[in-house]
Design brief:
The protein is of the alpha/beta class and about 290 residues long. Helix content is about 45%, strand content about 20%. The protein has ten helices and ten strands. Strands 1, 2, 3, 4, 5, 6, 7, 8, 9 and 10 form a ten-stranded mixed sheet that branches. The longest helix has 28 residues, at about 10-35. The structure holds ligand C2E and magnesium ion (3 copies). One magnesium ion (MG) binds near residues 180, 203 and 236. One magnesium ion binds near residues 179, 180, 200 and 236.
């Protein structure tokens, strides 16, 4: 602590900075161990067409710590993974688990795609791209059943080998989705170069639909651009019927959010899926018509 007020402003902050750094290092170590011990798991959140048909799912990494399984939020550990290099083994782990789920779905005659979140920086890594293609081949899963979600905010500094590597994956049959659309910096000309097939409208624009004039205009504009560029649109964070109604009325292709389904562990998601398919009841009655 500073001995003298005023003079010691820097010294005053020093211990706090130290604490933050120490906490970060601890989190990184714990995450490294969790990856090594295969303690990460995946949850899946279903996506539905506005008429209520189950059309896909998003894979979300989960980290439950200790005997009580206290969850650590991906919002807290994904940035640490990204800045420490742990994102590479983490992504391969998540992908491997996601492909195992797709394979089990295929064995039950269910062919719907799963989306996996993919940090943009990974597209610079040739070795990882090869790893993705190898995992697909090993799993015997058609690439068409895998969508990679890329966050828009990371797109600003795109290098040309990023586009080349994305091109390789696209030629192999994978699809790309631009996550959190509207919050980042990507310009519209980019959308075509990126080999995208889908946009996800960020939850912040969905939140106060249909009451908020600005968000109504933004969402309608996104839907109109997407239609002209022949991109599919998924709305994320749909929590109310009035949001779903607005999105459906304006041609949004898929809805995802707590209104329809909360992310659940892959095992129970699969069981639920199998039940609803065998009873032909995978429909959600969200369409007012
Ligand atoms: P995201 O990709 O935009 O995922 C959607 C997030 O919103 C998820 O949070 C999901 O649980 C939450 N969500 C879905 N519907 C609703 C809703 O109706 N209301 C509210 N309030 N929230 C909803 P989660 O699982 O905490 O993940 C946060 C972020 O962490 C993700 O945002 C994604 O950017 C990142 N992430 C998650 N899993 C992975 C992963 O395996 N790899 C990478 N690189 N990032 C991941
Ligand atoms: Mg996502
Ligand atoms: Mg998102
Ligand atoms: Mg989001």
């Amino acid at each position: 602590h500073a001995k003298q007020a005023g003079k010691g402003t820097f010294a005053f902050f020093e211990p706090r900075i130290g604490e933050v750094v120490q906490q970060r290092v601890r989190l990184e170590e714990a995450l490294r161990n969790a990856i090594l011990r295969d303690e990460l798991s995946i949850a899946i959140q279903s996506q539905y067409s506005p008429s209520g048909r189950l059309s896909g799912g998003e894979v979300l990494v989960r980290w439950l710590v200790g005997p009580d399984g206290v969850p650590v939020s991906p919002g807290a550990f994904i940035p640490v993974a990204e800045s420490s290099g742990l994102i590479k083994p983490l992504t391969l782990l998540v992908l491997d688990k996601a492909l195992a789920v797709i394979r089990q779905m295929m064995q039950r005659g269910i062919h719907i795609p799963l989306s996996v979140n993919f940090s943009t920086d990974l597209f610079r890594d040739e070795e990882l791209i090869n790893g993705v293609l190898e995992l697909l081949a090993e799993a015997g899963v058609p690439a068409e059943l895998l969508v990679l979600e890329i966050t828009e905010s990371l797109f600003i500094d795109t290098h040309s080998d990023v586009l080349d590597n994305m091109g390789r994956l696209m030629e192999a049959g994978l699809k790309f989705s631009l996550d959190d659309f509207g919050t980042g910096y990507s310009n519209l000309a980019y959308l075509k170069k990126m080999h995208l097939s889908e946009l996800k409208i960020d939850k912040s624009f969905v939140d106060n639909l249909p009451g908020d004039d600005d968000n109504r205009a933004i969402v309608r504009s996104i839907l109109s651009i997407a239609r002209q560029l022949k991109l599919r649109v998924v709305a994320e964070g749909v929590e109310t019927h009035s949001q779903a109604d607005f999105l459906a009325a304006h041609g949004c292709d898929l809805l995802q959010g707590f209104l329809l389904h909360k992310p659940e562990p892959a095992d129970s998601w699969l069981i639920e899926l199998e039940n609803c398919f065998s009873e032909k009841k995978c429909h959600k009655g969200v369409d007012p018509s």
